[in-house]
Amino acid sequence: MADGTKAVVDTSAADAAADEAALAAAIDELAGGKTAPAGDAGAPSPNASTDASTDPEQGSAPDTPVTADADGAADPAADPDAAAETAADKDAEAVTEAVTEAGKGASGGEETSEITAPLSVHEIAAELAAGTARRKPAAPEPAPAAKRRPTDPQPTVDPRDTATLPRTLPAPLRHSGDKIGNRYRLEECISQTETFSSWRAVDEKLRRAVGVHLMASGHQRARKVLAAAKSAALLGDPRFVQVLDAVQEGELVYVVREWLPHASDLAKLLADGPMEPHAAYQMVRQVTDAVAAAHRRSQAHLRLTPRCVLRTDSGQYRINGIAVDAALRGLPADEGVEDAQRADTRAIGALLFAALTHRWPYPEDRYDLQGLPKDLQNAAPDQVRAGVHKGLSELAARALFDHPPHHAEPITTPEELARAISLMPRIRQPEPELPVFPTPPRHNTHALPTAPIPNRVADPAVAPLPASSRPTSTRRTRRRLRRVVKATAWTVALGAIGIASWQFVDTLRNNQGAVASPLPSASSASVTPHPTTHTPVPIPIKEALSYNPLGDGPDGNDSIGKAVDGDPNTNWTTQWYNDQLGPKPPALKSGTGLLIDLGSPQAVSSVNVQFVGNHTAELRVPNAAAAADPKGAPIGEYTLLGKKSGTAADFTLDSPVTTRYVMIWLTSLSKDSDGRFRGHVAEVKVSG
Questions:
Q1: What digits encode the pLDDT tens for the residues 326-369?
Q2: In this predicted model, what pLDDT tens digit does every residue of 425-474 receive, in sequence order?
Q3: Is 130 exposed, middle or buried (0-12, 13-18, 19+ CB in 10 A)?
Q4: DSSP per-residue codes, 202-264
């Protein structure tokens, strides 16, 4: 394959002007679907027009220079300055039109959950800014003082100045079956843009499916993509699709991430219509909690779309492409903290708006959703569609708009949005509808199985029987009645015999007991024949704590409170493990625990634990040595009370145990769809 970096460095000013004019023409085609007149020598080729209309993300740059048209316009190849001025004028007009029309017709090509959306307003501006910088003369002028240099989240030491690298370098050409890094075999190209390509691949070392992004190492965005991927990999939050590898190898930069084969993105979930209130509430709550946790660690997504939000088979939402998607498309990563928080909050508001109304809250059509007309801009979801949940509608408007309807206060950060969701009245899951059974036929239901089948209802279309055959029908009815009477008599007789036999045996038993048994003593007479039943009383839980003595920190500390929040639809999720827990390698450790603090010593008689998936758990309580420091005490200082396996564990103690702390020690975790092992505790209830 030709070296892309060398091709850009060696090109002449005429080729640069021709490429820029072709880029402006491609953007004009993207904006309005217009084509140049047949007599225009500078019009792009038919193949280029076809490619642009098929894939809006893939640019077109012919190699032939642009010549003068029939009106005698200046030749851009001969006069680079004139070409730059002409293209610059086109850029200003193309931005507004391309932003409005970029999404039209793009949804038809999005066949899988991994294909990203058409270019947004910021992405088109980034592409135009890249082209403008490439048109400038060889002697560059100093950059404006207002624009500061981008700062990577995880800078990589490199003596080169990335400003000298090319901004538009074609994506590396690869085919199915090629190997990357002598490990990842490319299987299927999911999406292809001008600067990068995305693939479904197979990790031949670990024998699992992965996703791979490919980009030329000479591209100016390559350093930012590597830095963003390394920063996302350090996040370590299981609610985000994990970045597994980020490598620069020769002329190639590739980023490897998890692949969720059985997950469905939000755009696919909305294909059949809007979500129910409970489903929309679960989606926005889980996504907001994850994004807020990322922002607390100074990490932003910056390109949160319905294609990035994936729902697994277990109902959990995973977020794909944090920081990496924005870096691949040249979106500015050096925005202030407030701008990044507002961008992600507005994106979550757009997701909730689309889930409630089945409409995209902007004029253009995106993600197979119809855009809003101009007269409905800045309208709340309940003003767009009838029957929308009032609380969720207000929440979406406050997160999406800078000036929400009814003078409501806007929400500008994911942390504020998560707090507003927690203050909402909980939306319960609708009760499942019972199946409708057909009405049974009206006949004698007390008849025995030997009773004959009742007569069928006469069909009015059938002619009545002749009079000569009616006596035969009467005789059959009488025979059937006699059979029913006989069967009933036998049933009554057998029942009487059974009752008499039972009374006779009971009489004999009482007589034998009266002869053989001595008179009851004072001690035996005080014993009651039936023990008193104990009614369990729920014990309030003060808090849940992560018990991880075999690890280097709390396990799943961000979601620990969901195990005791009273909602079985939420769960505490541990970190992921490549191997199952166990006492021997390759297991990383033998277990991880959930420590329940009751606030004060209580008499505990039963503990009920609900899981998501199959788990094995032990119920333990601390002994006297572990009571002083329950989180730091080793697991050997906890007394084992029981062990259960399955999707739920009901520990019922023979006698109550007085303790302040109760330990749920997980020794076996469920295997998620991505092939990794995680613990999911939905709810813990303690009774005394």
A1: 888 888 765 667 889 999 999 999 999 999 999 999 998 999 99
A2: 888 877 665 565 566 555 554 544 554 555 554 444 444 545 444 455 66
A3: middle
A4: EETTTTEEEEEEEEETTSTTHHHHHHHHHHHHTT--TTBPPEEEEEEETTEEEEEEE--TT-E
